Amino acid sequence: MAEGRFTGKVVVVTGGGSGIGAATAHRFGAEGATVVIAGRTQEKLDKVVADAPQGATMVARAADTSDCAAITALIDDVAREYGRVDTLVNNAAIARPGTVEDLDVETFREVMAIDVEGVFHASKAVLPHLRAVGGSIVNVGSVSGLAGDWGMAAYNAAKGAVTNLTNAMALDHGQEGIRVNAVHPSLTATEMSEGVREDDENMAAFRARIPIGRPAEPAEVADVIAFLASHDARFVNGAHIPVDGGLGASNGQPNMS
User: Fold this and answer.
1) What global pTM score does this model have?
2) CATH 3.20.20.30 is the classification of domain 10-249
3) Which of 39, 155, 185, 206 is catalytic?
4) What is the CA radius of gyration of the chain?
5) How far from the centroid of its chain's Cα atoms is residue 88's Cα?
6) E strands of the chain, at which residues?
7) What is the pLDDT of residues 8-39, one digit of tens each?
8) CA-closest candidate to residue 151, choices 102, 204, 187
9) Which of 65, 91, 143, 209 is 20 to 30 A from 39, comparing alpha carbons?
């Protein structure tokens, strides 16, 4: 493989078994990184590795980001095995529909455990390793964390927390040479959004609101994640980049990513 922006770098991607996580892993791998993808389902992770770009170095490790001990052990193992960790992409997330009145406490806690606590656990584990190399974290938020949308109270709350946690880490660790940024996709063609995208009425309304008029492709989000992790973004810290086809430029209502 020809040298790329991430040759010699080690990248950990959570939620790497499908969608944005898989596309991000492939993008980093294509540009020379050693990529470790984490997720809860080994079979999905193995398929992403099997489909990796030719010549890419990619490894699958099963771990649940809501389990602090498990994700800490994974990141420490990666640092020990490869000698460094340069970038963490916090992508693992779930979405459960419902208003505050509709949701039961267990479902709300499940969303918060994976979408927020998972970011906290993985970031806490990786910070000492990033400090050693001047690395970065890229969090995958959502336009639903920048403004509310209907019927997704837990997801909105979780992604809103990711937005401000990104800000806090950028402030706390910028002077240590660690950059922390976030991308915020709108509706993206992933497994998680299948139900939304299969609803013709919903999609017609979506296309009417967004200037580009379609969902994002996972690779289009991965492109921005790779930029934020690269030397090209070396003075970018605490940034929130919507990957939304212009949705935020209109008066339209955000949709789940």
Assistant:
1) 0.93
2) no
3) 155
4) 17
5) 9
6) 10-14, 34-39, 57-62, 87-90, 136-140, 179-185, 240-243
7) 999 999 999 999 999 999 999 999 999 999 99
8) 102
9) 143
